[in-house]
Amino acid sequence: MSPSRLDQPREIRRAVLPRPHYDPESFGRLSERIARFLGTARFLVYMTVFVAVWILWNLLVPAPLKFDPYPFIFLTLMLSLQASYAAPLILLAQNRQDDRDRVQYEQDRARGERNIADTEYLTREVAALRLALNEVATRDFLRSELQAMLKELEAGRQKDIR
After folding, report:
1. Could you list the residue ranges that cross the membrane (predicted)?
2. What confidence tens digit (pLDDT) does each residue in 15-57 have?
3. Contact between 59 and 71 (Cβ < 8 Å)
4. pTM for the whole thing?
5. Count of domains forming the chain
6. CA separation (Å) from 81 to 7, 69, 90, 138, 148?
């Protein structure tokens, strides 16, 4: 078998039977809904009632109506089948949740980094404003300077008057 060449189109292989197509996103949403239901008390109550009715039916009805006698092999098969489908659906739902959590974590981290950068910027701006305000003449400073100048002028007038 020769390695595939990138300058040539791929050979189209036709399958004997067409492969089924499904939308992974729709299937993922369905699996999450099923997994969410499997984790509820309602599901546990339904399963308990189902198993109890199954067992009581096969213990109490006349022999010709029984469809799964005492060792309840068919019930065991049904529960195993349900578990074999439930486990992968739950894992698929968990993987999708992990992906969402990872994206959320990355967004939270980026938001946190932006908040830190904004806080540092605002801290620098406040420090610059404080420094600038130290160079600005305050009202009390101006008042004291004007009073000193008035005293000097009055002293100079009194000197001129004498």
Report:
1. 43-60, 72-92
2. 788 788 888 888 889 989 999 998 899 999 999 999 999 999 9
3. no
4. 0.56
5. 1
6. 48, 19, 14, 84, 99
